[in-house]
Amino acid sequence: MRILSTFIIALTLLSFIPTKKDKNDYPAYKIYNAEGKEVSFSKMMKTLAKNDIVFIGELHDNPISHWMELEISKSLYDIKEGKIKLGSEVFEADNQLILSEYLQGKIKENNFLQEMRLWPNYKTDYKPLVEFAKTNNLEFIATNVPRRYASMVYHKGMTSLDSLDSAAYSFLAPLPFKYDGNVACYKDMIAMMGGHGGDNIAKAQALKDATMAYFITENLKEDEIFIHVNGAYHSDNKEGIIWHLKEAKIEKDIVSISTVLQDNVNSLDEENQGKADFILVVNSAMTGTH
What we know:
Elements lengths: L1 H13 L14 E5 L4 E2 L1 H8 L4 E6 L4 H17 L4 E9 L3 H8 L5 H7 L6 H14 L4 E5 L2 H10 L27 H9 L7 H19 L6 E7 L9 H7 L6 E9 L15 E6 L7
Parallel strand pairs: 3-6, 3-7, 4-5, 4-6, 7-8
Antiparallel strand pairs: 1-2, 1-8
Helix pairs in contact: 3-6, 7-9, 8-9, 9-10
């Protein structure tokens, strides 16, 4: 009996001895600040909660991005006692009525799914966020320009918007909006396309950014955090949407998150430093959602 007791005590003591990290432990992600210092989720949340607008730059097919969007929204909802609002690139402004009717329980999900222009990965990636908003009676703003207007700009240039019916202008940023082809995200886009289509591709992107900035601005309220979900390219390096907000001289505190893929998540690659206030580094082996 005494031997058994001694054995149990020994096992108990061993449980308190620190062990080396398992060499086969593969973290799926880590969070870093702009300078490359690893930070905890809770520390990031303390910073996010001090701001008026939170941009979550995602990789559209990345499950960690989408999971983090939901967890950040839940956390800010708790911290701000429900005083948050959601918005996203994935919903276009002319679908706002349908989105709002669904959130308010006025229409069935079947109607919502049939009549919205939803992305193919809606059910796996964006539905959880929409249902979170619905459950908690939160507003969800469809901020993006209808894709048909961005297509017009890409194919025919900015002047093509002059021919629109007056009702169409309620779905895009007031014209003319400011465009600067020297902003890095637009300049790089033109370079990536090898000059194909001239600068219209960048102007179409700018129309999206300006429109998202406009609808964020129009829906800001005091003592409320606006959480905006968009592709990381729309907010990386404080360009894209954030550039348009600054040009509009919006006096609000803005914080950004970007998502990047790396083979090694245990440090932030130099090329990813400074992309945002916080960088979500996901293992590049992570499977996509579509």
